[in-house]
Amino acid sequence: MAEDPSGWSLTESDPQVFTQLLKDLGVKGLQVDDLYSLDSDTLGPLRPIHALIFLFKYVGGDEGESSSGIEVDSGENGVWFANQVINNSCGTLAALNAVMNIPPQSSEHPSESIELGPELENLRDFGSAMGPLDLGHTLSSHPLIREVHNSFSKSSPFSMDPAAFPEREREDAYHFVAYLPVNGVLYELDGLRRNPIMHAAVEDDWLDQARETIEARIATYPAGSLMFNLLAVRSDPLPRLTRLLNDPTTATQEKMTMQDQLYQERTKNERGAVENTLRRNNLLPVVFELFKTLGQSGKMGPIIEEARAKGRTRRERAKQRGEDED
What is its EC number (predicted)? Predict the structure, then answer.
């Protein structure tokens, strides 16, 4: 892909990327996880959930467009909302539009509090009286936000002009929007809209209204379509799980369940840390240098022959088992 003139790179729809992005911006107490369903069994272990980030593909026509809701003035309704004014920023913008509307939460256990951090707190207060377009320009020119956003860019030794490829081979256009409750009302925050979209008053559980709204939107896609993804912005579970496991009043059976949850969370975080490190470090020069060194030392030929021999052996064994070759 050619470098975007705005200086902002594409964002992967990966929960570990969004979690680290928020942490690097100073947010404490929140993490982002994949959501594969909106049923109660899936949502239950992830609560409390403070916002949803919906990724969808532009397919033309009316598919993927909001099927309900009305645009309202952000200032009059107490919604912090910024427009998207540059390419490739929609992922970070959706995350910021979400967290800026999540109220900070103090806790008697400090590690379980939710805080924006000084940088975003100043930005939230500074931008509270600004309109969506001005806020969008403010975010796009913020050096820390752009730096953190671009720290997850994919490394490539090549620069290719998308116009050189047939239309069907160009990268599909995807977009992120946020859903969350603000002052007892479910809002959709889409940076490409002029204003926030008001959907419905939250009655008991805001996720009930969100489920209906998002499912109605998904229904506008062709049956069986996989043109969307959903992320949950929720409280970081590690401090709470750790505290309860160390609490002697916690029932033994509950501790067994919590130990399993803690193990899964730590494993996921460790894997995510490795993946984010790989995203942030361009290893291609190291790989090229390794190939160059192997070639100069004369070791490349034997390595290639060994790999070919292993491939032939694998194919012969598969043929003997009656398996088809890929």
Answer: 3.4.19.12
Instruction: Decide: residue 102, CB within 10 A, 0-12 exposed, 13-18 middle, 19+ buried.
Output: buried
Parallel, antiparallel, or unpaired: how do β-strands 174-182 and 49-57 relate? antiparallel
Residue 196 burial (CB count, 10 A): 26
- Nearest 5°: the CA angle 260, 262, 268 is 105
Written as one letter, the residue type at 296 is Q
- Pick left, alpha or beta for residue 7 (phi over 0 → left; psi -120 to 50 → alpha; otherwise beta): left
Identify which of 183, 208, 199 has the alpha carbon closest to the alpha carbon of residue 103: 183
Length of the chain: 326
**Would you name the residues annotated as active-site residues?**
90, 175
What is each CA distance from 174 to 148, 167, 195, in whole angstroms?
A: 21, 15, 20
**What is the tens place of the pLDDT at every residue in 44-64?**
999 999 999 999 876 554 444
SS (H, E, C) the chain: CCCCCCCCCCCCCCHHHHHHHHHHCCCECEEEEEECCCCHHHHHHHCCEEEEEEEEECCCCCCCCCCCCEECCCCCCCCCCCCCCCCCCHHHHHHHHHHCCCCCECCCCHHHCEECCHHHHHHHHHHCCCCHHHHHHHHHCCHHHHHHHHCCCCCCCCCCCHHHCCHHHCCCCEEEEEEEEECCEEEEECCCCCCCEEEEECCCCHHHHHHHHHHHHHCCCCCCCCCEEEEEEEECHHHHHHHHHCCCCCCHHHHHHHHHHHHHHHHHHHHHHHHHHHHHCCCHHHHHHHHHHHHHHCCHHHHHHHHHHHHHHHHHHHHHCCCCCC
Alpha-carbon distances, residue 244 vs 111, 186, 233, 266, 268 (angstroms): 13, 32, 22, 16, 20
Contact 66, 197 (CB under 8 A): yes
Q: Quick check: 176 and 93 in contact, CB under 8 A?
A: yes
pLDDT for 289-302, tens place per residue?
Answer: 666 676 677 777 77
